[in-house]
Amino acid sequence: MKRGCGILLHNTSLARKDGEGGMGRAAYRFLEQLSQAGQSYWQVLPFFYTQTNNPYQAASAFAGDLRLVDAALLREEGLITGEEDTPSFFMEAYKNGRETYCQEFTDFKYNNAFWLFDYALFAVLKAHSAGRPAGEWEPGLKKRDPAEIIAVTERYAEEIESMQFAQFIFQKQWKALKQKANFAGIKLIGEIPFYLAPGCVESWATPELFAQNGCSPGRPPMAEGDAGRRWNYLAYDWKHLQLHGYQWWVKRVRYALQFFDILRIDMLREADAFFSIPEGGLPKDGHWEAGPGKELCDTFRYWLGEVGIIAGSDGAVAPVYFNSIEYNGYMRARVLEHAFGEMNSAELPHHYKRNDVCYTAPPGGLTVRGWYGRLSGGQREHVAHYLGACGAPDIAEALTRAAMGSVAELCILPMQDVLGLDIDASQYLGEGALDNWSWKLLHGQFGEKEIARLKELTAVYGRA
Length: 464
Prior knowledge:
By secondary structure, the protein is an alpha/beta fold. It has a domain of 133 residues. It is built from 18 helices and twelve strands. The chain has an eight-stranded parallel barrel. The protein has a four-stranded antiparallel β-sheet with strand order 5-4-7-8, with no helix packed on it.
């Protein structure tokens, strides 16, 4: 891989005009800016269906987030006529487009049959249940009684078709975006969360994928006064997945790779070992369990071949277990914000390898200035001594230069750090914060001056 650089900016954070979604003109304008700035990559956060604003709380392993659909493009195609930007326009788009795209839509349903109908039925039933989780539906629907499923499929046939058509539109717009990006010499980096959220489509349609004993993944207490943490995710039934040759995981990764040139799998080291917290218990009551590790890696290699995968380094740090990242030769995510907890941390740039991917801040984490502002005096001194930086206003550029100058062939910079923004521009400020996942780039904020500066730095460090 040639040395390169890219920007991390999710589609929901793009500077958009009224009626523009995250996959249309706003995205096309951003591609032009990336090209002008000498960038080779654009990384986004997970783009899957979610029932919250948190893209890491995926409510489907396959369905796309329909909030990203660009209504302006649909108007240009004549699929919708109104000015409303609500989910209601998908029914209008379906009615106006089902004849025009009859064969394409038929092919789409066939190629995506392994997930599409379950998602569409789930979404329609949830809408007719006032948004209540599947566990609170009528017993027949909750347990997927065949007679009940047939009945509601007939009752809501047109709505189910329109939801499938909405996913058809999502794929169509995203693939057009990828084509434009690749034509401009820019590769797209996508991401899939390792875990799925409670109440996801799969927990209703294929509950056998998940542990049925009520346990949850999480993080153990790491120091005195640290209570650990139970994550709001579903734990997998790895024995069931192993029995079926991990084919669900193969389908999941293969599916995502059609939309991206490189795929980041968040918290991938959870496949080696995960911390299991019992139902009703506290993190201190949990224990480590070995994951599929080598078996899953071998399965990926056999079915997918050599593919571009970045292994996310988030997740609980396990005792010594099999290291699937090194075994499979995946690109390893390195985060500079994680590098200064100890004097000679393995996350410091002088320890990097060429196959690593360097980030100033974790995807969805605090901005560099926000992170720096929360450090103790001793930690700031460590950072300043290592980087030769002084003063918070300069810290974002100092870490940017350290990332760009590292031996890692790929460097990804969150847009907020390129702009040197403070903590209020962070995507995630902590559990319960009202402004989580709401930051948006303003028009003109990434302007000619900022583009020229980024282009200069990219050239200085041999990443053009």
